[in-house]
Amino acid sequence: xxxxxxLLMSEFVTHxxxxxxxxxxxxxxxxxxxAALVALNRPELEEDLHPFTPTSLxxxxxxxxxxxxxxxxxxxxxxxxxxxxxxxxLIKGVYGAITHKGPGVFIAGGxxxxxxxxxxxxxxxxxxxxxxxxxxxNKTHADIILERELRHDxxxxxxFTLTRESRPGYENRRIxxxxxxxxxxxxxxxFYVCGPPDFVQGIALMLQNNGARAxxxxxx
Length: 220
Hints:
Number of helices: 5
Shape: globular
CATH superfamily of the largest domain: Nucleotide-binding domain of ferredoxin-NADP reductase (FNR) module
Strand content: 25-35%
Low-confidence stretches: none
Distance between the termini: 21 Å
Mean pLDDT: 95
Strand order of the largest sheet: 4-3-6-1-2-5
CATH topology of the largest domain: Rossmann fold
Helix content: 10-25%
Oligomer: single chain
Order of helices and strands: EEEEEHEEHEHEHEHE
């Protein structure tokens, strides 16, 4: 697989995260939750591949990514955040283990929400959001990606916790074992976990320590 896609537009959705809209190449297909391997479309950089999860749906007419910039890394995200319409990305593959297996609890840390965005949008489109809930941890309120959409679609089944800020209407706690026991009454259901590696490994272990089967904990 090799596709070149042109940027149509971009806009900030948080102080450091942008929504990018690209042309959708003919024949390109990605399932909600899967990531695309992308690089800048420049000969000297086309092997510098990084995974980004489309937040658009499989049958959308465009290709959308929601990407946080890390200017201190001086890498691909910094260059992407400087993109202007007409600039090109190279897509060289699709992969990912995060797929929806049934109603369950989504647990995200920071930009770990991105694989879940398309999954939740697809469930909403198919009127299958019932039985799914979200626990979303961020450092501060300003870091929350697509809060309004998530609150609208999930209502009281959406919980936001902030680890470095106390703010009315938001919890100010880290997700530890006590937190999971408080928020989850049934550990036999499906769980979907995404975020920084230490976050994912810690949450997966805590879920299994409380009775979740390894086969029911989905993560990349």
